[in-house]
Amino acid sequence: MANPTLLILAGDGIGPEVMGQVVRIIDWFGDKRDLAFDVDHDLVGGAAYDKHGTPLHDDTMAKALAADAVLLGAVGGPKYDALDFSVKPERGLLRLRKEMDLFSNLRPAQCFDALADFSSLKKDLVAGLDIMIVRELTSGVYFGEPRGIFEEGNERVGINTQRYTESEIDRVARSAFELARRRGNKVCSMEKANVMESGILWREVVQKVHDEDYPDVELSHMYADNGAMQLVRAPKQFDVIVTDNLFGDILSDCAAMLTGSLGMLPSASLGAPNADGRPKALYEPVHGSAPDIAGQGKANPIACILSFAMALRYSFDQGDEAARLEKAVEQVLADGARTADLMGPEGGSPISTSEMGDAILAALDASL
Ligand code: NAD
């Protein structure tokens, strides 16, 4: 059988540095676990603009659509700040998400015990935390029409429209229920059905999908403002949270910060399954290109490495190998390995990006 294919788009700033460590880990799985991938590399963001005058070349887009999964580093940087909006590095990322129709954005908030002190919450509230926010990514108020700033009488009015079709809600609800079955089997759906019609429809459709096809999964509904409160009051009550684009944007950032550093946070964006059952998929760290530390070997590669672990689990059905990689990360943190972003107030000597890669590879070797 042919190897599964990966398209790597390392991007700008620290993107290539952190992705360099992921490539070493991909090679390790090929050598030691008989899990080889056919890997192709291409440009995105500022790097693509520099070469092609566009943040995503059509050929790269075609490769992304054909690949079994795309791994992305980060895009952007001050060099590109003055560019026209249409060719800014972020447009490359937006085009990928749009043309791959990645409607389900998975943002785990997982707290490694060794880093529980980094959270802004008390340690016992977050130690062992493992929740997943599923955010609808391609519709809702960021896309709804009409939108714009219009003249109305003697003043202007700014308009955005929250709009969801039943099928858009249905497909993201299914993706949340499927995920829950692989985890703690609980879904909490969040909207504002008390004040928004789109929220009423959201609640109805999620309940219908549940009753018809996922009655084995425990489902609850919560108003999103209460959800925000509960996330900081008692986050461990949740397993999978499913919500719309706007609330998901806010709630996932809030949940992410429960766990400490930006350098630790992976994400996945999934689309509809192909004929072989694999969803269209893009995996990327939550952080940006960190121009302030780019090129200095200081970046924490763990967010990007954990994004590859998500690819193993959600694109390649290798949950055991994903867990092996996550455990290796947990082990090196428990052993005290820290990049600069993970240094506490007590200080110490941070290790470099590649030394963190070395440590994780050694922990993977030890797992055999
Ligand atoms: P950022 O995430 O790049 O950096 C924020 C802070 O976190 C910086 O101090 C940075 O040094 C630190 N940081 C981020 N990732 C780190 C890592 N892996 N290890 C150690 N420290 C890390 O956000 P920003 O500074 O607001 O944006 C910088 C550029 O990145 C901008 O051009 C922005 O548009 C872009 N950006 C891209 C993405 C993406 O590619 N998905 C996301 C956010 C921002």
CATH topology group of the largest domain? Isopropylmalate Dehydrogenase
User: For the record, what CATH class of the largest domain applies?
Assistant: Alpha Beta
Q: Which blocks of ≥5 consecutive residues have pLDDT under 50?
A: none
Span from first to last CA?
25 Å
CATH architecture of the largest domain: 3-Layer(aba) Sandwich
Keywords: Amino-acid biosynthesis, Branched-chain amino acid biosynthesis, Cytoplasm, Leucine biosynthesis, Magnesium, Manganese, Metal-binding, NAD, Oxidoreductase
GO molecular function: 3-isopropylmalate dehydrogenase activity; magnesium ion binding; NAD binding
Subunit structure: Homodimer.
Organism: Sulfitobacter litoralis
Structural write-up:
It is a single chain. With 368 residues, the protein is of the alpha/beta class. The chain folds into two domains: 1-108 and 261-368, Isopropylmalate Dehydrogenase, CATH 3.40.718.10; 120-259, Isopropylmalate Dehydrogenase. The chain is 40% helix and 21% strand. The protein has twelve helices and twelve strands. It has a ten-stranded mixed sheet with strand order 2-1-3-12-11-4-5-10-8-9, sandwiched between helices. Strands 6-7 form a two-stranded antiparallel ribbon. β1, α1 and β2 (38-42) form a beta-alpha-beta unit. α6 (166-181) packs across α7 (197-213) and α8 (224-233) packs parallel to α9 (245-257). The radius of gyration is 21 Å and the shape is globular. The model has no long low-confidence stretch (mean pLDDT 95). It binds nicotinamide-adenine-dinucleotide. Residues 14, 18, 74-77, 90, 93, 262-263, 284, 287-293, 299-300, 303, 341 line the site of nicotinamide-adenine-dinucleotide (NAD).
